Amino acid sequence: MLDRKMSLWHKILIYAILVVIGFVLFAPFMYMISISLAGKQTNMIQDFSFFPKEFYWQNYKTLFGNLFGGEYPIGTWFLNTMLVVVLSIIGQMWSSSFVAYGFAKMEYKHKNFFFLLLLMTMMLPGQITLIPVFIIFRNLGMYNTLWPLIIPQFFGSAYNIFFTRQFMTAIPGELYEAAELDGLNYFGIYRRIVLPLVMPALAAIAIFTFNFAWGDLMGPLIYVSDSSKFTLALGAANLSASTNPSGTINTSLVMALSFCLSIPQIAIYFFGQKYLFNLNLGLGNSGSK
Amino acid sequence: MKGWKKLGLAAMAAIAMLTLSSCGSGNASSASKDGKITIEFMHWGGTDTYKGVYQKRIAAFEKANPKIKVKVITVGDNYDTKLLTMVAGNKAPDVAQVAEDGTGFASKNAFISLDSYIKDNNMDLQKTYGNGSDLYKWKGHVFGIPDRGGAGVLYYNKDIFDKAHMAYPNDKWTINDFYRAAKKLTKRDKKGNITQWGTSYADYQAAWGSFMMTNGGSLVKNGKATVDSPQNLKTFTDYTKNFKSSSISYQTAEDGVNRFQQGKVAMTLDGMWWILGNSQVKGLNFDIAPMPGKYSWSTGSALTISRQSDKAHRAASWKFIKFMTDVKAQKILGASLGDIPANMKVLEDPGFIKQKITGKTYDLATIAKDQKKVKIDGIFRGPWYSEAITECTNEVKEMLLGHQTPKQSIDNLQAKVRAILNKY
Amino acid sequence: MDASTKVADKRGQSSADKRTRMNRRWFFFFISPWLIGFLALTVGPMIFSFVMSFTNWDMMTQMNFVGISNYVNLFSDPIFLTSMKNTFLYAAISVPLNLLLSLGMAYLLSFHLKGMRFFRTLYYLPAIVPVVASTILFTNILSSNGLLNKMLGFFGIHGPSWLLDKNIVLFSFVFLAIWGVGGTMILLLSAINSINDSMYESATLDGATRMQMFTHITMPQISPVIFFNLITGIIGSLQTFTQVYLMTKGGPDNASQMIVPYLYTNAFSYYRMGYASAMAWVLFAVIMVLSVIVLKSSSAWVFYEEEVK
């Protein structure tokens, strides 16, 4: 947007609006931190202040006190989550680049038919296949394991494949031809030429996948029942619903866990934002530069 | 490119480690070797429940029956879903704990009938476990033996009663006695804000369900919805009126603070599992009395045997159930007070009644009295329980929130329950 | 045509044939991961789910065909109808509101002023908080004596009990959606920033006002992104689950019950796999119809530049 002729009053007005919105959006964070640091007495009467008044770090110590045992083994939950997240990312990066290459550069009469099928699955709500897929994994003996959350990621998702294909079509054709003349077969081209070139797109996919796998509740809720198999998101959800022996929910503990749940995602954003912004976040922008 | 490769290698190493650590174990089958047999037993709750309720009893059982090993599965949440998937996947545990939801599974043929075992052992369920045992029957066949007992109970704060010079609640109390005391014990400051509540009860069925049965009402009878009776209208009307005048409102209760434990509530109607927790609260001088009125709502659970177990496992499972629900093991349960024993002989045993809980004695004779008052509403007697009781809670809550009159609630609920029963 | 060209032509044809076949093989080799997943985890389950929606299967006893009665019952099930209404209402409020607010915020952030990076990050932060965490947080914020009512009390307003009142409980979910407005905003912002400055420059020379530039240059240029967000917003909000499951469980008295949580309850608490499958198909139909409507309308207001190859 051009704004060379902006007056001082204009600028002040804009800053004022920006600050007000910023405050409204930041207030819940403040409250989360404040609750997570509230002491036992405050929890007993559940009357939390907006700004942190107490700094009761004991909540965090309690939370991390027993990493692999007790009522909330968050160390175990973290490892479970990481297993799902890492394998999901690898699965998605591999499958989207692999399949996208097929759609982008291979010639086949009925290619468009298959591409249309792919696009149509983007419209399909997951709930249609939820129960049958659940039954398939249960019959494979995978109920109460993390595999049902991981395996589907290796088959790719329509959105990611589409996104990567768009990226690939922008790669100049001469690169492929040169590689072909060098005697590489298509798999060689995929591995040596295409994969390195689409890495920025795959990095964005890795971030999308991380966000999904890290925060997903429905999946773990359906497939996992033992506390030792929980992911962090499910663990937090469970903790938020359970009461301590005195019957009161320990809100501070739940908030501390929620806060910890948010940190990695925020960190990933900071490290990964250059990929996200370079790519204009993909799909919607394919029309404009 | 090297960076990516390194990252990939690191990721691979991480996965290999994680795979070994958390995805390894599958479902070990309970094969019998050298005459030994392993049965699977599943219950809900956390490790605290396991330790408080089952651990010692199972140890005693294994000591008495060296040839049987019990593999315990503790399920923290979504118990019904877990049991469902195990039954559906042909991997049902040999022995499963069930409560009100048991009929649902029994109607799907998940459990065997225990009739022949009961006959062979000359057991009188009614006499040994009271009316609560009625809950675990489907089409006339018994599918579960009561293990953990309990009914709704009245907790009261002795200090508050003493201060007001009022007599403690007793087993002769009627519902009106309860309402009257609650009103008297509610105190307000000058602004009209309540500083001390007479009672705290809400949409929990153990409270309003007991009152409803005492007034001669019911929710379901012989598989038909019977909500819209004049008795129920009276129950709901009084319940709402007293909720408004002397109970903790939802708006206040939303913060989840346990105000009874803070000494700000004179009486509360709830399950018996609070005794141990309440006894550990410093400065709380409380005791228990039977639910006011003639009848009490059941809150216990039972043990069942899976239809998928083979002959040997069924026999071993029965031995296990018999042991767990018999006097010896039930005494162990009663002594720890992890939960309430279902066996009446134990509840009436002086050893149980006179025991000290966190250094104090309580009127534990109440429990046996209350257990005898248990009446099973028709809502329990079908697979519709979970769905129907959810709607009951919804309607009662709307009524107590003041969004609809008792009459409207009754009519809505009648229609809802009838529709739900029609689905089954 | 002489013989030699014929031979050469034939050879050329056969090598082209071979090439096509090779290419076809490679095509299937590369798309095989998706194709296998598509057949095993999408088409197969879809057929199964469709068949199941005509049965009363509970996963434990035998499957019996019940004709279309699941579908008939759905439309006489008051809770299902309520959850449909709630889901639509939630989508109808939250999606446009979200778009409007994010458009306004993106516009503000597109000015080249100092500190915009800071504000951009600040506005985007809530969108990357996992839904589980933000929902738990908002359960506390929206309770009777929670943060929101305390803030309102600061201005002398006595706030309602957001999560207890049938008439306003849906707004709790709207608040939650609005807090995460940064997700859409960042997409719109990057679209606005990628508009070529020369367009504005020539408009300025023509004497266009700021408002005119916004409606005649900015809006058309970013309309594909708005369209994309509208579609994903509708589809996403119709499938709301986590927020309801954690914040209200559908209460009070089903006033915040939505389609997917109700489907979940029926399948996994009441063992009605057939009924839940029928519900999923109705949801699918609804999503299809709405998508087609939006898609059809898009030709009127979405502006596409020539496709960049």
Automatic annotation (TrEMBL), chain A:
GO CC, alphabetical: plasma membrane
Secreted among keywords: no
Main location (coarse class): membrane
Membrane topology: Multi-pass membrane protein
Record's keyword terms, sorted: Cell membrane, Membrane, Transmembrane, Transmembrane helix, Transport
Transmembrane segments: 12-33, 77-101, 113-137, 143-162, 193-214, 249-271
Location of the ABC transmembrane type-1 domain: 78-272
Protein's recorded name: ABC transmembrane type-1 domain-containing protein
Native species: Schleiferilactobacillus shenzhenensis LY-73
InterPro entries membership: MetI-like, MetI-like_sf
SUPFAM superfamilies xrefs: MetI-like
